[in-house]
Fold:
Amino acid sequence: MSDKKTILSCIQPTGDIHLGNYLGAIKNWVELQKDYRCFYGVVDYHAITMPYNPEKLRANTWNMAFQLLACGIKIENLFVQSLIPEHAELCWMLGCLSSYGEITRMTQFKDKTAQLKSSSKSSLISGGLFYYPVLQAADILIYHPDYVPVGKDQDQHLELTRNIAERFNHQFGKEYFKTPQTLMTKNAKVLSMADPTKKMSKSLGEKHYINIFGDEARVRKQVRSAVTDSGISDSEQMSPGIKNLFDIIAALGSMEDHQRLMSDYTTGSLKYSELKEVVADVLCSLVNEKRTALEGILADKKNIKYQIQQSSAVIRTQAQQTLKEVKSIMGLLHTKTK
Ligand code: TYM
Structure:
């Protein structure tokens, strides 16, 4: 076996990849493939914790897998969660080591619960929604990763994962699970352009996120109407909206543009229209590049679906090995138990 360190990360199949996903996570996932052994999952079990449509979920799951490939994820590193049911089995076991109190404290659970309550849908707050972070801990621990590259919003779930791993090791008196470290990029929290007091997210609505497989005219329009000056009272400090635009240039554009615009900002001569034009140009070249790559993948869709099923089957053997060991440690039976 290779002595490379291991990376694991996952994304929900929510439709198209947005700029927050890309700069906060996926761009980094692609680069990490050079030096690490990587596992990247499309987590469709997570997507059924909120109300959904089955046909749309299936289409979104494939679509997310195709888009990850178009971003540069290697097919052998990619899996679909529902093809590896051991994730759900480990979730049950880890759930028995987690406390009700610690799961209830997860902010994502609180936010989604509040969202359902405010639209008078309290009856749809599912047990799955509550258990979501334990399933995430299982997704991670099952592959014994050293690092998990994610955006800032996943901090709390990773802390819970480490706590569960430590509790397992302590309870069974064995250093079995690694306590994986979080890896974050400089863009760990990309903000909505329409409301830079909030992180970019699909759940805020269409105008809040940039689809990296979207259409050039729409991207230009979104950048043109980006909010620049809201959310700060102290004029000495750069506003979150402007900082967000500078961060996008730093991640995707040229350093010369970044330095030139920053020195205009410092001397007070920066024209926001110019800043926005540079941002729109770098985003349009990203969008065009990704769309072309996606078209190539879609042209060979059937074969690629087959390959994703194959790579999931290979990755599954790792998950099965972990399950066998965990069952043995926990006193449960598996097929080879004597
Ligand atoms: P998800 O599907 O919401 O997002 C996928 C990745 O994108 C990052 N991200 C962002 N980064 C910066 N700025 C933003 N505005 C932004 N929005 C999203 C997320 O932090 C994430 O890294 N619970 C996870 C999915 C998951 C998972 C896992 C992740 C399930 N199991 C195991 C890591 C390991 C989620 O909903 O991510």
